[in-house]
Fold this protein.
Amino acid sequence: MTVGFKRPGEIVDSACTIGKTKSEESILRLLVLGFLAGAYIAFGGTVAIATGKGITADGFGGLSKLIFAGTFPVGLMLVVIAGSELFTGNIGVITPSCLTGKAKWGGLLKNWVFVYIGNFIGSLFVAYCLGYLSKLFAADPYLKGVKGIAEAKVAAGFWPVFWRGIGCNWLVCLAVWLAVSANDIAGKIWGIWFPIMAFVAIGFEHSVANMFFVPLGIFYGANATWGQFILNNLLPSTLGNIIGGGLFVGVIYWWLYGRQSK
């Protein structure tokens, strides 16, 4: 009997093929595709703020979080379906591809470095040009929400952010896994939506999303500095994201289903 989605072993095979292709992209394409992905994740952050942070009544705090989390996944939908390169998602597909021998570790490093740079540029572009210069969030309650997000993220502490980064990219890479499993766009959308909604609602830390949220708050005058952003948030969330996606998705699923194809 045929099924409408790929089984776990088939997902690993497809992910490894995708990872090989990603590892062989040129630096210029990685930068441009990375820019797009950073912008797309920032679009998800923008719509989350525009919808979720407009609800301020104390009795609706849970609803605000649900709407914020429920609209953010549009970013990864754009990344996966429209096509671009996202650092966090690539961790989950290039790692097993290298372990099976389809991709080279040097290609993994090239992809991660230049996609990360592209993601940062794309996120900053949306934060500054479309989020700040547009004055979308210049008035309360949005202004308070934007500043509050940035201030909370830089004040959370290195190790809490690190562990939240692990949880985040475990779910993000599972979202990519489910998208790979699906054979149609509707399946990919639903596969992406639930895990991404979950990590945002929980409060986990996504390094590329933070490239948008924290700079946006800084541009709007949040009590946060660029040094605090990089050292207190971006560094630990990035390290956590690498472990969460690389180990708990890439390595474990390779060990379970992909070793025989090496």
Notes: Residues 226-258 form the longest helix (33 residues). Residues 37 and 49 are 18 Å apart (CA to CA).
